[in-house]
Design a protein that fits this description.
197 residues; 0% strand
Amino acid sequence: GYYSQYGLQGKFFGLLSKAFNENAMMLAVFHNFCAVMLAVVLATISFEVAFKYNKMFGLIFYITFGLSPWIANFAKNLYWVEFTWFVPILICLVVSNRLENRKIRTAAYISMFFAVFIKCLCGYEYITTILVASMTFLATDLICAVAEKNKEKSKLIFKTTCILSAVALCGFFVAILLHANIKGDGNIIEGIINSGT
């Protein structure tokens, strides 16, 4: 077995299979679920990109993802559950487009924690790239706000980025602690030490 991750997706799909008496059709349903979720997330990201910049840029963004063989090949994969890679990016983009809305920011903080937490429980692969990519839009906003000498906006963007980064790291560490606790049979330190075996 592969013990260096928790494998939430395997547990989730396994429970559903048992609930439906391991119907042979369930595998196709799970594949389609992952593909549809990825399409929804990428379409929403493209909509937000269009909202932030322009419709043409949003369309190009979507076509680029849609024609990527790498994205298409993993869309239905039950191990990668690829849509979880892009949810943190979507969250930060939504915040970037609605920075002044306090309720949106608060919802984003909570959502970011769970998005990263769930992604890490499914697998730690690419998590650094995902987190860096998530902050790209806000980082660009901060650079523009500083260039425009808009101190209030700069402070808000910086504060928002710091909080989002902090809750994302919290999601990562909570997932590691949960995984280590299980792997170490209640001994977190032992679970962390043995996490690579």
